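FW: tagging you since you asked about this chain on Friday. Here's the raw sequence from the shared folder, copied in full. Didn't touch anything.
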Amino acid sequence: MTQEHPSPASSDTTVSSDSAPESDASTSSSPLSSGSSGSEPAVPKKPRPPVRSWPASDEIALLEAVSAHREKHGRMPSPSDIAAALQGRLRAEDRLGAEQVARRLRALRGRYDSAAARLSRGTIPVKEDDVTIYRLSKLIWAGTRKGKRRKKARAADARADPREFAELSGLYPCLSAEVEAIDKGCGAAAAAGVLKRAFGRIGDDTAARLEARVKMQRVAEARASAELDQLRRNVAGALLRLSK
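HL: got it, structure written out here
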């Protein structure tokens, strides 16, 4: 019986995947029936490797163009605007259609949401390109993450007797620092003290949960920053040794 061989895996490991590997239901092996004789069992195919397309350098150029446009104009650019801005900057010019740009941005948005969720649990990107892509994505989509499932709205965990900000700062220092940072960026609402007054009514269950999440996020970001600094020191050391 002729055996089918899997396609060889792509050697380009620095680029990202457009889609997950496709599975072929017809390749699953099935046991021989008791009445058959002289036949060999079917050999299952290995899953095909994911189709590799955009290199990390192209994804970084795409995110840089989106970030620059948003910073300059205060809004997200259209895919056609980005395609025009990327002329001559990508390794493969055939990716410059608006449809391809829109598809890649959707993929990068999904990857950012997943990476942010992993980072909150303490899992950090390993490669420097992945760190760069995450940081650029955060500039574009921070605060706009969309969960895959909509959770039921929780009842407000509020106290009838508000507490002072100083008291809450002693109980929940990390959360209080975040509230103060948000409050400073809210303009008129900050001047009126709206957010700090609302924070005074927060219940202990909600405050403890948010305090833990803020701590986890800070630890994860500190670890990512430390690993990136170590990597840069290693690169600098290697280059200095070559210069001698």
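FW: Residues 204-243 form the longest helix (40 residues).
HL: agreed, and The first strand starts at residue 15 and ends at 17.
FW: great, closing this out.
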